[in-house]
Amino acid sequence: MARALHEFGTLRELTGADADLHRDHLLRLDAAGRRERFNGVADDRFIHRYSQRCFAGRTRVFALLDREGHVRGTAELHPPTLDEPADIAFSVEPQFRQLGIGTRLFEAVMSAARYSRYPHLRITSTAANRAMRALAHKFGARFTFEGGEVTGLLAVTDADGVAPRRHHIQGQIVASVA
User: Could you give all domains of the chain from N- to C-terminal order, each with its CATH number?
Assistant: First the structure.
């Protein structure tokens, strides 16, 4: 499992054995952080179930762990469905925001999406979450606004900045990098 050092700790992908660390991080989010992360109210029971689901399927979770081993920020990469692009979601505890952690987590998710050959990523947030929109915009997201919710769509690019092309092979859509 790849790890990257950050001045506040270690950035790495979490496994099922780390599910409690992910859950505890989400539980430490304040009311505004929970609302921003889940686009609405999320009580403790919801967070317990949500975190379990993240490790029960194909979702990949990346995290910044501080020197004591506590998760202080996460990025989730939820696989695409037949009709929808892969979804990404982020959370950083309030006292650790504006320190570059979100950028590093975003880079990890983009790298994983590139490796998985996902052509696009979708991110949703509340209209009030300007910090998330600014971060996603830095990575090329284009936004639409509807009913108080903001949806961003990002093209996943290769290391040279080239977006994957989609083409058909025997009736299937396949993403490739030009």
Answer: 3-177 (3.40.630.30)
Residue 19: predicted pLDDT: 96
The amino acid occupying position 39 is N
Tokens 């979702």, residue? Answer: 59
Please determine, for residue 92, whether its predicted confidence score (pLDDT) is greater than 60: yes
Tell me if residue 36 falls in helix, strand or coil.
helix
> In 3D, which of 49, 164, 65 has the Cα closest to residue 105?
65
pTM of the model: 0.84
Name the residue type at position 90: F
Amino acid at 53: R
Q: How confident is the model at residue 171 (pLDDT cuts 50, 70, 90)?
A: very low
Torsion angle in degrees (nearest 10) through CA of 20, 22, 25, 26: -110
Predicted pLDDT of residue 138:
94
